[in-house]
Amino acid sequence: MKITLKSPLDMHLHLRDDEMLKTVAPLSSNSFCGALVMPNLVPPVTDKDMVKSYKGRIIEAIGSDCFEPYMTLFFQDSYTRAFLEQVRDDILAVKLYPAGITTNSEGGVAALDVETLRPTLQIMSDLKIPLCIHGESNGFVMDREQEFMPIYEALAQSFPELSIVMEHITTAAAVAMLDRYDNIYATITLHHLLITLDDVAGGMLKPHLFCKPIAKRYEDREALLHVALNAHPKVMFGSDSAPHPQHKKEACGCAAGVFTAPIALPVLAELFANHGLLDNLQSFVSNNAMNIYNITPPVTELVLEDTPMHVPEKYNTVIPMYAGEQIGWSIRK
Amino acid sequence: MKITLKSPLDMHLHLRDDEMLKTVAPLSSNSFCGALVMPNLVPPVTDKDMVKSYKGRIIEAIGSDCFEPYMTLFFQDSYTRAFLEQVRDDILAVKLYPAGITTNSEGGVAALDVETLRPTLQIMSDLKIPLCIHGESNGFVMDREQEFMPIYEALAQSFPELSIVMEHITTAAAVAMLDRYDNIYATITLHHLLITLDDVAGGMLKPHLFCKPIAKRYEDREALLHVALNAHPKVMFGSDSAPHPQHKKEACGCAAGVFTAPIALPVLAELFANHGLLDNLQSFVSNNAMNIYNITPPVTELVLEDTPMHVPEKYNTVIPMYAGEQIGWSIRK
C-alpha cells in the first residue's frame, strides 16, 4: 500500500535555534513542504526583525526552497495597530501562551481576561491575523485544557471574525468546541492520537512521551481520533514536535515535549491505513490547513508506503518517538 | 518545638536485598524501631526458609537489636493450611499483589476473584494472619485504586474475621472504606500526604516522585491528610520507601518508587506541627499499628525537633525525596 501526499504541512512546530535548529529543521523539511513555526525562543519572537532573522536562520538550516517556514509572533497585549500592520506580511499567526504554561512561555499572558486582551485582538481581527492559543489553565494537570474552554468560548463570541486555533488539543471537551463556533479551529499532534496518560505514567514513567498538554484519557483520545481520521475540515495536523537534548529529558526534572518530526508522516499513514481511512490523510495534513489559513505552500510530493522503517536511537542529542523501534510505514526515497 | 516518639514503626517498607539492602536498611533503623518488610524480591519471598534467611540478612545489614523486621509472605493461592500454620510465627502478614501491578509483582494474582482466593483467605482468617493488598486494577492509571474498591468490599464482606490492610492508599474513595467495614485498615505514605499528580507531571516531569499508585488529585490528598493528621485509629504510617539506583530513575523508562526512609519522620513531624496536630503523630506512626497488628515492638525513643536538616543529594546510588534541599525538622543526634 502507498499514498502520495501533496504539499504536507505541519501547522505546529518547534524548531528552536542554533545547533538544535540545524539538527531538526532538515528532519521536518524532509517530510513537509512547510510548517507553522512557534515563537517561544529565549527571548521570544516579538518584533519584525526577530521574525525575519529567525526565518532567515531556518531557511539557512534547511538549505532548500521547497519548505516554507510560516512564522508566528509571541502574543503580547502591548502590540499596536501600527506594529501589527507593519509585521502582517511576515507572519501567518500570533501565538498566545498563558504565562509559564510550557517551555519558554514565561513572558506569556498572566491574566487571560478578554477585556485586557480586547484592543490587541480587535486589531488582529481587523487585520485577519489568526490567533493560535496554548489553551491550558494553571489548574490540576489533567483538568487544564478543559478548564480553558470558557476562555475559548468568550474569545469566539467576542471576536466572531477572528480565527482562533486551539493548539494541540487533547480532550473531548476541546473537540466539542469545533462544531459550536464557526471561528474555532484546532491542531492535533501525532502523539495525542496514539498515547494516553497510561503510556506516560501507567507502567514505567516515560520521559520521552511527557508533553504539554499531558496525554489524557482513552475517551479523549477516541474523540481526537474521530475528527482526525475523518479529516474534520476544522482540524489540521500540527506535530508540536519539540526537541530537547537527551540530558534534559532523562533527568531529575524532565522537560516537556515529544520529538516526532522525522516519523510523523509514516506513522500517520500507518494509523490512517489501519483504520481504512488513508484517503483522508491528505486533508488532515494539508488541504484543511490551506483552507483555514488561506495559504498556497510550495508544491511538493511525498510518497509513503507500507515498507517498515527502523527509527534511529537518536538524531544527534535528540531521542525521537519510537527510538530504536520499527514502524510499519516509511518515506519512499 | 520538639517531640519524643516512642517506638516509631514503618508498616510498609521495601528493603530490597544485597548491596541495596546494606545501603537502605540502616537508614530505616536510624529512625524506626521496626518495619513491615515487603516480600517482592526476585524471586518473591514465598516460603519459610526464604522468610528466615531474608530476615537474617536484614538483621545483619542493620547490626542492631533495636529494630524488628516484621516479615511478609508474597501471597499465592496455592498456600495450604499446613504451610501457613508452619510459617505463621515467622511472618506478620501476607502481601497480595495483582500480577504485574508494580515493581517485581509479576508472580502476583492474575484474577482477583474471591472464589479463587477463598480457600487461602479462609485459612488466613482462621489463623488470624492479616492480608495486605496492593489495591489497584489494571485500568487507567488515575482510576486504578478507585476501581479496586469493589474487590476490597467483596473481601471484607466474605471474610469478616480477616484483617485487610489497604496498602499505600491514595484516594478519597479508599479513605471512605475505613468507616464502612470493621475489618479494613490502611497504610498511608509520606509522599501521598505531600504531593499530587501536579508535582509529578504538572511542571517538569519528576521521576523521583513517580510511584505506584501514582499521586492523585488535591481532593484525594485532602482526604488522606484528614485521617492521617487526626490519627484515625485504622490508619498507620507505611512509607512505601522504595529505593532504585539513580540510573533506573533518570532513564528512558523510570522505575516506580519514592525513597523517603531517611527523612520520613522529620518531614511528618513538620507536617503535623504545621497543622497544630503534633500530638497525633505518636498514634499515626506507632500506636495504631501496635493495636491493629497486636505487636509489641522494641522500645525506642526518637527525638524530633524543628532544627533544619540538609537532605543529602544521594545515599550511595539512591536519590531521596528532597535531595539537596533543606527540611524544617531533624532527628536529634
Automatic annotation (TrEMBL), chains A, B:
Function: Catalyzes the reversible cyclization of carbamoyl aspartate to dihydroorotate.
Name of protein: Dihydroorotase
Gene Ontology cellular-component annotations: cytosol
Family to which the UniProt record says this protein belongs: Belongs to the metallo-dependent hydrolases superfamily. DHOase family. Class II DHOase subfamily.
Residue numbers bearing the N6-carboxylysine modification: 95
GO biological process assignments: 'de novo' pyrimidine nucleobase biosynthetic process; 'de novo' UMP biosynthetic process
Keywords: Hydrolase, Metal-binding, Pyrimidine biosynthesis, Zinc
